[in-house]
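Dear colleague,

As promised, here are the two records you asked about, laid out in our usual form so they can be pasted straight into your sheet.

NAME FIELD: protein one
SEQUENCE, THEN STRUCTURE:
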Amino acid sequence: MEIARPYLLFLGDVPDALAAKTAIGIVDWRKDWCIGQVRLEGCAADTGLPDMSVPEGAAAGARTFIIGAVNAGGRLPDHWVASVVEALDAGMDVASGLHVRLRDIPAIRDAAERNGRQLHDVRHSTMSFDTGKGSKRPGKRILAVGTDCSVGKKYTALAMDKAMNERGYNSSFCATGQTGVFISGRGVSLDAVIADFISGAAEWLSPATQEDHWQIIEGQGSLFHPSFAGVTLGLLHGSQPDGFIVCHEPTRTRMRGVETPLPTIQQVIDLTIQCGRLTNPDIRCVGIAVNTAALGDSEALAYLAKIGEQHGLPATDPVRYGMDVFVDKVSAEFGAP
C-alpha cells in the first residue's frame, strides 16, 4: 500500500482530541507529510495545522485526504461522506483507518471510479495470517500495554524505539493500529484481524530476527477492558515480549466507553505476566509510562516519583520527560547495545 503524500487531514466534527487521535498522531510524528486540516462545524479537536477547505487543500498540493478521526465501532458518519466525495472530485486519493470499507459506500466508490482515484482502507490488511504457534523465536521485544484504551501506548512505543536507537540499540517500531501504520508505512491493524489469527498476525509483525535486534510493539486495548481484551491478549501471546511497559492515565476512574472501573497498575503488571508467560516465561515489566497531560509539572513529577517507588520501576511521561530511565532499565536487565 503506497499512500501518496502530502496529506490533508479530515477531523470531521469529533467531540474531543481522543476521537481525532489518528490525525494528531500523524502530526506529532510526521508533521512534514501534512499540509492542513479540514474541520466541520462543532469539531472540538485541533492538530495545530492550518484550517483549510477541501479545495484549498487540493490547491496547496495535497495528494491524499486522510480520515483522521475515529468513533465507537469505526463507522463513517453519513454527514462526513460529502467531504470525502469532495476530496475525490478535487483529485485526491482517500485513506481511512475506520472499520467500514470506503468502497462499500456507494457515493464514495462512484466518486473514486469517475475520478480514477485510489481508496486506501488501512485497517484492512491484504495479508492472510496463520494461527499463532507460540514457539520461541530469536530477537528481543518490548510491548506497550495499558490500564485502558487511549492512554499512550502508541506514543510510548514510538518514543521507546527512538530513544533506543539514539542510545545505540538496533531497534524498530511495529505498528498494530491504523495510526501507527500511517506513521511507519508498515504494520497490521490487529483489531480488524479475525480473532483466531490475531496472535499469528502479531508473530508475523514481529518475526524472528537477530538476537540483538529489539522490536518495539505498539499495544492495543487493555486486558481489563470488556470490549477489547481479546485483541490485547492475542497481541500479548503473539508478540512474545521479553519486556513490557505499562501505560496509564492518572485522572481516569472508569475505562473509556464503558462503566468498568479502571484497574490498578499492579493488577495490569500481574495479569500481563501471568498471561504472557504462556509464550515467554521470562516476561518482565521494565517501566511505567504515564500520560501526565492533565497534571501540572510539580504534580506530575510527584506522581511519577510516587508510583515509581511503589512498584520499584522507572516511571516517566514519554512526551514530557523522555525515555532515558526506560532505556537504562533495559540496559540493566538485558545488557547494553
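NAME FIELD: protein two
SEQUENCE, THEN STRUCTURE:
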Amino acid sequence: MNAQFDPEQGSAIRLPQPYLLFLADTVEPGFAKTAFGLRDWAGDKCVGEFSIGATVTTGLPHMTPAQAYAAGARALVIGVANSGGVLAPNWVASLVEALEAGLDIVSGMHVRLSDIPQLADAAARLDRRLIDIRVPPAGLPVGTGRKRSGKRILTVGTDCALGKKYTALALASAIAERGIPADFRATGQTGIMIAGGGMPMDAVVSDFEAGAAEILSPDAADDHWDVVEGQGSLFHPAYAAVSLGLLHGSQPDVIVVCHEPGRDEMLGTAGYKTPSIEETIELNLMLGRRTNPNIRCGGISMNTSKLDADEAARVMAAESERLGLPVADPIRGGEAFAALVENCLK
C-alpha cells in the first residue's frame, strides 16, 4: 500500500492506528522528528515507543510490540528520519518482531520496506501490511508557474529539522480558529502521517518538484489559506533542491522563516555554518518572486525548546525589535504568536 496524494479524490489515507513509535538506536534528537511530531500532533494515536538502544525518547511508555498490540496498537511507525532515509540492517529483526506481534509497519524512509527480503517474507507469511509513505503519485507534471486562486503561507528555514512542520500546523490551526478557511498541506512523511495525506516532496524527481507543489495546493476560494509545510533549506548543501522546487511551486504569498537560536552549524553537514535570518529572508524572497512577485515575509518562528521561558521571551523580543517583524515560538503561543498570525493574514 502506497500512501499518495490524489487531488481528484482528496488526500485521506487510511492508516492502521493507533501507533507504536519505533526509535531504533537513534541518539540524535533531530533524527527522531517523526516520532516527536506524531507525539505532539497525533498523541491520541500513539500508545508507546519501542527502541533498541536509543538514547532519544518521546516520553511515551516503552513497550514491546506484543505489549503494544495488547494495548491496542495496530501499526509500528518508524519514527526516525535519518540522513538519506535509510533503514539499518540491525533494525530488521525488531521490525519482524512487530509483524509477528500483529502490527503492520508504516515507514517514511526512502528505502522501500518490501525491498527488504526478511520483511517482505514475514509480511506475506503473516498477512501483514508494509506501508511506505514516501512514494509520490505517478504522472506528476512539471510546474507551469500559473498563478492559482486562494492564498498560501510557506514555512522556510535556516536549516532542516527546526520546526517548519510544527509552525505550519500551528499556523493552520490558529487561522482556522479565527473562522478563516485553512488547510495544512503536508510535504514530509511525518506531516502526511498526521494529516492523513500530502505530497512526499523529497521523494519527487527534481524536474517535477514544482509541479508536485502546484498539485498539493490547487486553486481555492479567494479567502482560503493553504499553509504549506516547508522542507530543508535553500542554504543546505544536500537539501536545497527540494526547498527551491517547493518555493516555486507553492507560490507563497507569505513566508515564515523558522530558526533555532544557538544552532551554528547545519544539521548533518559538518563545516557548513547556519545562515542568518536576514540572509534567509532575502534569498527566499528573491527566488520566490519568480512565481509570485508579491511574496513577503510574515515573520519568524523560533524553536526555543532549549531555552527557559524567560530567556526565550528575551531572545524573541530582541529579535523582533532588530528585524522589525513578529517573532514567536508557536509551541509557547501567547501574544507573540498571535501577532505573527495576524501579520501573516494582513
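A couple of things worth noting about protein two: The first helix runs from residue 33 to 41. Residues 66 and 101 are 5 Å apart (CA to CA).

Best,
R.
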